[in-house]
Amino acid sequence: MNISILIGIIEAMAEAAPDIYDNVKGYLESLKSGKEPTTQQLIQIEQVLKANSKALKEAGGKDGAS
Amino acid sequence: MGSKKGNLIALAAIAISVAFVVIVSFCTSGCAGRVHGVVSSVYALDTVYADVQKTEIALVRNPTISQDTKREIIVVDDKVSSGLVLLTDQIIAWQASRDDSQLPTQEEIDKARANLHELQEVVTKSITPGATP
């Protein structure tokens, strides 16, 4: 399968649900450019993951789920 | 009614993210070299996981979801989170040193992907209409 078709499919997904696919945009840019993600992009996504995990645990703890 | 619609949207989001992981896995393994494939795969898993986390947070905040389900989500999430953060740290270290011995192995990436699939299954099960509150 051609890589441009794959990119098109992923782009369509991201456009169909922009609120859900905020984080996919950075990956799409890397894929389209053919370059590996930069250290800055990796640090940013890692920070998002950590912040989300913290929010998840806090929300769980609030409801007695932790 | 609104809740059902919300559940359907969340289910669609998870289904699409599963498809996204499959497409990205194919793409990074079939269209790129070993190193680029490893770096892109980890970044792709990170981005998909970040999106799944949004659904997880909404579920854990939802008072109609049972405490057992919330606990299960948090336990599986912890496994995915620790694995992917470790892999991402390895990639960051590799980018600084370009020492290939610091790259994650294919087995480690496959394990992270399997854990993410498990999380997607737990989340999908939790938002299926009619799930036990």
How are the SSEs placed, and which strands pair?
The complex is a heterodimer of chains A (66) and B (133).
Chain A: H1 3-16, H2 24-33, H3 39-62
Chain B: H1 2-30, H2 34-61, H3 67-97, H4 106-127
Helix pairs in contact in B: 1-2, 1-4, 2-3, 2-4, 3-4
Quick structural gist:
Chain A has 3 helices and no strands. Chain A has helices spanning 3-16, 24-33, 39-62. At the A-B interface, helix 1, helix 2 and helix 3 of A face helix 1, helix 2 and helix 3 of B.
Question: What would your notes on this structure say?
Answer:
Chain A has 66 residues and is mainly α. Helices cover 73% and strands 0% of the residues of chain A. Chain A is built from three helices and no strands. Chain A has helices at residues 3-16, 24-33, 39-62. Chain A is flat and about 45 Å long. Helices cover 83% and strands 0% of the residues of chain B. With 133 residues, chain B is an all-alpha fold. Chain B is built from four helices and no strands. Chain B has helices at 2-30, 34-61, 67-97, 106-127. The interface between A and B is large, with 40 and 46 residues.
Computed structural class of chain A: mainly alpha
Please report the number of helical segments of chain B: 4
Element pattern of chain B in H and E:
HHHH
Characterize the largest beta sheet of chain B: strand count, sense, and whether it forms a barrel: none
- Give the integer mean of the pLDDT values of chain A: 77
Helix content of chain A: over 70%
Regions with little confidence, pLDDT below 50 for 5+ residues of chain A: none
Structure class of chain B: mainly alpha
The parts of chain B where pLDDT drops under 50 for at least 5 residues are: none
Distance between the termini of chain B: 16 Å
The count of β-strands of chain A is: 0
Give the fraction of residues assigned to helices of chain B: over 70%
Query: How large is the radius of gyration of chain A?
Result: 16 Å
What sort of overall outline of chain A do the alpha carbons produce when their principal axes are compared? flat
* Tertiary shape of chain B: elongated
By DSSP (H or I, 4+ residues per run), the number of helices of chain A equals 3
For the sheet with most strands of chain A, the description reads: none
Strand content of chain B: under 5%
